[in-house]
Amino acid sequence: MNIQSNIFEDTKTAYASKNNRELKEAQTLFKLIGNNALVSAGTFFANIALKLRLPVTPLFRITVYEQFCGGETFSECKKTIKKLSDKGVGAMLNYGVELKECEEDFDKTIQHNLEAIEFAGSNESVRVVCVKITGFGRLALFEKIQGKEELSKRETEEFERVKERLHQLCKAAAKNKVQIYVDAEESWIQDVLDVLIENMMEQYNTTSAVVFNTYQMYRWDRLQYLQSELARASQKGFVLGAKLVRGAYMEKENSRAAEMGYKSPIHKSKKAVDKDFDEAVALCLSNITTVAFCVASQSEASNLLAIQLMQQKNISFSHPHVLFSQLYGMGDNITFNLAHSGLNATKYLPYGPVKDVIPYLIRRAQENSSVQGQMSRELKLITTEIARRKIA
Length: 392
Known about the structure:
The structure is a single chain. The chain is α/β, with parallel strands linked by helices. 57% of the residues lie in helices and 12% in strands. The chain has helices spanning 11-14, 20-33, 36-51, 57-68, 74-85, 103-121, 139-146, 153-176, 187-204, 222-236, 250-260, 270-286, 300-312, 332-340, 354-370, 374-389; strands spanning 90-95, 126-131, 179-182, 211-216, 240-245, 291-296, 322-327, 345-351. The longest helix is centred in the middle third of the chain and has 24 residues, at 153-176. The radius of gyration is 20 Å and the shape is globular.
């Protein structure tokens, strides 16, 4: 199939799964998120409300939660998965609870993820389960390890439990033939997480990609890291699992680097980020037998480039080593048009109790408002479809 350069302009296909009410609600929400001052103020007051334990859950539920999350319970999420599946779009399930501090919460998160993996094993529409290691291990523990501080006996045992939880998830994923994507986190703990994931890949990716690491290409060192991991996978005989993203913590990373007086790990320009991201896509497609990868991007240009490179290299649109993904609630013009054209398209679909997913939602609103032009593009496409349908 010959893909046209204007593939992502087709709003009829993009929003076919949304009724008129849902479209209007999305239009209103993106108008609000597009207001940076409003997002900053809302974030400030939301964080205060959370600290004071004020009842903000209902407000989040009827605004950003419904737009960006699949449901509170697993049963609710299944309805969203079915809706996506009807349009040929798969789901990447993510139990969106993070930054917990106690063992009971960590074990609870693992149990939710094991249930998701088991469900995915019997549902072709769920291709991936995404996890954050800070969902089942303390951030402060990872910071201490990366800082090369000596661990106490108790902390050493705690870290062993983190490893065991990760093994538990990977074993279940391998058994159910499900892929597990480990999300990237802040640079000051990422080295520790990388080592954990590298070890899991060597053990579980011997015949096919089960475990995937996430490469944040807004970091100036990640393209080289991806190259070295490809070489290691080839040498050791396992399939590298790679999820390519631009990045999610830019403001936090730059602020911390400035405060602590070290070189920021973030590229100085968007142009440099885009260049590394697109080079990473090209690198993976040139090593398609060694790597299974996901183009996890809201950028129309990067997704189009990936498609064009696949055509040039005669790589089938349905190749199991190439997946595309956008956030649930955004980039519908990309996801649904990719699926309509026969590519492996998915949505990153967080779910979980509203109060526990609020940190994710706050971060999502901040990220979206900081991406220049992203909100206006989303709003323009939705408005175009509303006009096409002649909705009053």
